[in-house]
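hey so i finally got around to running both of the ones u sent me last week. sorry it took forever, my laptop kept dying halfway thru and i had to restart like 3 times lol. anyway pasting them below in the order u listed, first the sequence line then the structure token line for each. didnt double check formatting much so if smth looks off just lmk and ill redo it

first one:
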Amino acid sequence: MENQVTNKAELKIVRQFKAPQSLVFNAYASREAFAEWWGPAGSKLTLLSFDFREGGRTHYKLDNGGMSMWALFRYQKIRQDDAIEFLSSFTDPEGNITSSPFPFDFPLEVHNSITLSEKDGITTLTLYAEPVNATPEQEKTFADLNASMNQGYEGTWGQLDAYLAKVQG
């Protein structure tokens, strides 16, 4: 059997934070913490529900520049301080999965895997995301939006940096 190279639609971001691993993990695990930093820079987050556990769901609304959108995390695996896996989707206000509010064919579900590791007080966060049950067109859209998603996450990570600096004093 020969190895096949695939051009899979995926996103991988590695980012370092000047904070203990447990604090970075807790920024995802705590409703109060998550509400302070999640989302693109300049957007307003409203948490509609927050149930951080395997099988739990977090449903939220983002308001940005006059546009509102809703999204959902469905947690699959959580390993205390080390890893978080969840499916993310756009939703309607009631939490039903819907197509993207943007004028392109984005996957209905994206599997996200976050791993954390700490060395010398610096935590490395690795985010790996890929579409689930996506059409070829949705896979292409996801791949084409890589640079845009990286840029969006950079604003989110900046907010996480500010939150971590604040709670560490």
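and the second one:
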Amino acid sequence: MSEDGAAQPQVLVRAAAPLQLGPAAVERELAGAVQAAALVRQLQDAAPGREVYLVLDGLRVEADPGVLYQVELVSLAAPGAAPEAAGSFSLYGVAHASGASARRSFAVTAAVRRLAARGGFALRLRPSGAAAPGAKVEIGQICLVLQ
């Protein structure tokens, strides 16, 4: 607990990174079947009011893609199932300077509960249109945080 009584953020999952975004959708596993079962238990034990956030940190842009990226969670246990939409983000305004980066986060509590109960799941990032030729976008860190 912090000095004000608030619970400290807890990293539930840290995915392999970095992840390069390109002209097509990319996926990165967040939780396999065993890890998903552990997540179910952790969320059952979590204090009321705590939420799960998907955090994309260390976003770096070398060449602006000029598109929005759709953020989805997809079932590994049922690959044909409809994805769980988490939101979207733009990289407009992210500096191209060396070392500059940004962070985006999305509340995904309900989606993580549903997907973890069914088995493993992955993150899918999909451009909303045709990314600019030569676009270079990288995500330095991907995690699920209980806050």
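quick thing i noticed on the 2nd:
The beta strands are 10-15, 19-21, 26-31, 52-63, 69-75, 84-89, 102-107, 121-127, 136-139, 141-146.
anyway thats it, ttyl
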